[in-house]
Amino acid sequence: MDGVKVLWEWNADFSRFVRSQDDKPHVDIDDVRVNAANVVVLYVQYSKSGYSPVAKTKGSGEAWVFTAGKLFQGTWERDDAAKPFTLKDTAGNPIKLTPGNTWVELTRVGKGISFLPGTDPTSFTYP
Questions:
Q1: pLDDT at 60 over 90
Q2: 91 in a domain, yes or no?
């Protein structure tokens, strides 16, 4: 989402990622912090529409998958918007997600994600 600052942090006490949006905890209608066992960042193209941008989620692109204590960089693929995404690591192996819910962030191609200062996303572990 352009213009929205999103932060996912690992909460060791809760054993889940928790989400903040625009520097505030993101909570649901029951005032529970939005959280996920897996966070999947898909880089997608957007097209214009009369109301809001439309993410193009058919095809393929770059993916960053945070699961099982690791960051997997790879690709996503999907030929039918009614079907699940296929996630593969850089060697072409399927990326298996941790049991539980998954939050998918659709990031515009050309935009990046950033990490907190001092964080090396390729070497940290969280659980």
A1: yes
A2: yes
